[in-house]
Every structure is written in C-alpha cells, then in structure tokens.
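Researcher: Please translate sequence to structure tokens.
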Amino acid sequence: MEKYVLVTGGAGYIGSHTVVSLVENGYTPVILDDFRNANRVVIDGLTKILGKKPIIIELDVCDQNGVKEIFESYKFEGIIHFAAYKAVGESVDEPLKYYQNNLMGLINILSNMIEFNVKNLVFSSSCTVYGEPKGIKEVTEETPKNFPNSPYGFTKWIGEQIIEDTFKANPSLNLMNLRYFNPVGAHKSSLIGEFPIGKPNNLMPYITQTAIGKQEELIVFGNDYPTIDGTCIRDYIHVVDLAYAHVKAIVFLAGKFGSFETINIGTGKGSSVLEIISAFESETGQKLKWKYGKRRSGDVTEIFANATKAKNILEWEAKLSIKDAVIDAWNWEKKLIEHNEK
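Model: Translation complete:
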C-alpha cells in the first residue's frame, strides 16, 4: 500500500531534500511544482539519488481546478506545503504578487484537504515571524511573534494564522507549523542543492559563489552589531536535517486525531557571519575575498532556536554540523560548474 505525501514546491531547495527523506522512510512523494522558482536539473538529481523518476505534476498551486484533480487522483497520507515565493527584497517591491501567491496557494491546499478528508498538513513557516525579539536571542515557540519586516515575512505570519483558524473550525485536522531557522548545505551526493536566482540573498550560496568566482567578493553587512565579533548571528541548520524533520512531522501527525502544533526547527546554537566564513575557509582550504559593507535594512541582530520541543514532540534533533554544511555546499557548487560545462 503506497503512502502518498503531496509535496508542494517539491522541486525547490528544501522540498527536493524532503522528497529524498520521504522515500528513504517508506513514503511515496507526489511533487507539485510549476518550476517558476526551481531548476529542472533537480529532477535529474532526484532520479539518480532515488533510482527512479519521482512523480511530478507541473502545476501552479493556486490553480483551483488543477489542484482539485490531484486530490481526486491520490489518497494522501499528508501534505507538506513549501510552494511560495521567498525573496524578501522582491516582496517589498511586489507585495501583491507575494500575498496572492503565498496565501492563495495555502488556502487552496487547505480547502481541498477539508473537501477530500485529508487530515495531515505540515506548513513551511519561518523564524521571520519572531521579527527582532525584544531582549531575547534564544526563541521558544512561546516567544511573542512580532510584525515581520517584509511582505514575505507577513505571508508566513498570516499563513500560520490561517492554519490556526482553520483548525479551530475543523478540530479533527492535524496541522503543524514548522518554523525554520537558516537552511544551509546540500545532499551528500552533490546531486541536489540550492539554486539561488540572481545574486544570492543567503550567506552560504553567497560564500560558495564568491569562492568559485561567480561573485566578485562577499559583502558582510555590518560589523558593529552587539555580538561576539560585530556581525549578525543566526541558527544555521543543515538542509538534510531540516528535511528529516518534515518526515518526523508527518509520522507524528498520522497518529493523532485533532492536533495543532507549532515547532521550531533549528540547531539551538547561533553562529556569526565571520564564524561561517572561517569554517568555510578552514574546511575547504579556499580563501575568500570579502569586505564589510553597511548594515542591511531589516536584519535581526541575533536569533537562534530553542529546539527542545522538536526533540520532545517529534523525537528529532539536528545531527549535522556547520563543517558538514560548508563541505556539502562547496561540493554542490563545484558540481554545478561541472554541469554547466557539459
């Protein structure tokens, strides 16, 4: 008996790694993705890792009729909902695009879950809902949410509210918000990884692209923060660990009747920008060209997860280190160059 899980945005960075983790744990993922924010090379990588081509339905998650047809075709054990625009800067320039896509996609999935009696949903949320925590560096799930600094952040904030309100009206559902911290790294095979569109917004691909020559130099945004070395501190979690958390979430929800949970997914430890640069140079032997720039608007000074709830509820904790992440990210970057030269 196949245990189907619908993975919206399953060709994306976190989605593709979650597809692998689902298969490794006995599930059959059904990828829903229209590839507007994903690279088709990912499918080749997934096929090599899995030994067969995954089920892929090329569709906009906001397409009501198309999504309904998917629910008519499969009996889903659960849904993992990644599909969303995610560039903070772009969301400031094009807020309506973000609100329309990110919120309508979620509403479309929830509506079909209710209609087709699918009980389990894992929502891809973010630590952006905490904003700049007042006087707190380590955040728990009970840390008050603050208004985010971008329309992207607000779509996660509002998305969580939509899910909570849906649960109140439909208390037999099992719904979970996973609040990620900062995903980094790539699959050990170097067959799937992160594909930034344009100049990277995230630190790790900015580092690897600088090291390989795609970017002229790395800009460290600010050196006067009240931290150990003046640079921002984040909780960097290996994407393979993050992917497995989604599998554990589906397993947890499948055993419930009426459950609503919000869980932080992080390592429980913060690392500064300079510490990540140092780890990369140390582990890869690559000297980076970098310089300090001005602070970036909206950047939080320091935030990392209290991941106790994930350990207690999901029986999950991060296993891979920053060293693992920088090595895997670098191997992936080098593999991309090989691919482009073929």
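Researcher: Any highlights?
Model: The chain has eleven helices and 15 strands.
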